[in-house]
Amino acid sequence: MDKRIITMVLAAVMVLTIFASGQAAEKARRRSPQKTVVVEEELTKKLPSPMRLHKRQLELEERKSELDFERQMRQLELLERKADIKLDKEDDEHGKYYQGYHRLKGRAACGIFLGLTLALHILLAIWVYQDIRKRNAGSGLWIVIALMSGFFGVLLYAIVRLGDIRQDQT
Fold this sequence. Notes:
By secondary structure, the chain is mostly helical. Helix content is 92%, strand content 0%.
């Protein structure tokens, strides 16, 4: 407890001394720039020896805390890098499996889509064929168009057929 009080008193004296020396140095600078260095050196020499020691001790402690902080930050950066490297290794080991799985899943979905599209085209072509046979009109060209273009070809066939029905009615 006594050391803390002494330290606080010494720190207060030091602050006051530095403040006073700063004001004196400022006045000296205003008078003549050459005398400034001399005045500051004289004021520094006038500081009591324990004050200079305490000031240096505080500077050393501050520097030590800065170095400790930098060291801790470096350790954290190293730990972060190690964790990144570990994750990269795990991704390399497991990534091939997951990547292959997703590729297989995508290929399966694409295959299903293509299969459904092909089935739809075939069903539409069958409908066109049955309609042509039922009406005894048209040609096999519409079946090829329905197979190749799917829904749009059947839509075109239906429009032409509606035109044929209107002609037959008149």
